[in-house]
């Protein structure tokens, strides 16, 4: 399925503005400090890392709704590991936490499996290491 979903404009100073066409929501990116930017907004590679976490949460949310589990309050911490030659993301580490999750062990395993099979996780290069951990 092919759908135009966004437009992106280079606004100068190593920054871009991406606009979601349906909603009008916008995201500004900035080059990171270690790559000539100011680091005042998400970098494009930060967005890739955040997109992986958001996608995993969304797919876990779909699974949780099917199972009657309230996933509200699920959080993640993301660490992005870059390499310099070539400059690319080498690893994304995501640690999910939910201190009050009410779910059976079987439901928790279903949530973990769902996270690892989200569309973003499946779309990223096999060379990009995804280190995912859960605390619930």
Q: What is the CATH class designation of the largest domain?
A: Alpha Beta
Say what the CATH topology of the largest domain is: GMP Synthetase, Chain A, domain 3
Question: What is the CA–CA distance across the termini?
Answer: 36 Å
Instruction: Give the tally of β-strands.
Output: 6
- Give the H and E element order: EEEHEEHHE
Describe this structure as you would to a colleague:
This protein is 30% helix and 34% strand. It is of the alpha+beta class. It has two domains: 30 residues, no CATH class; 92 residues, GMP Synthetase, Chain A, domain 3 (2-Layer Sandwich), CATH 3.30.300.20. The strands form two sheets. A three-stranded antiparallel β-sheet has the order 1-2-3, with no helix packed on it. Helix 1 packs antiparallel against helix 2. It is globular and about 50 Å long. The termini are far apart.
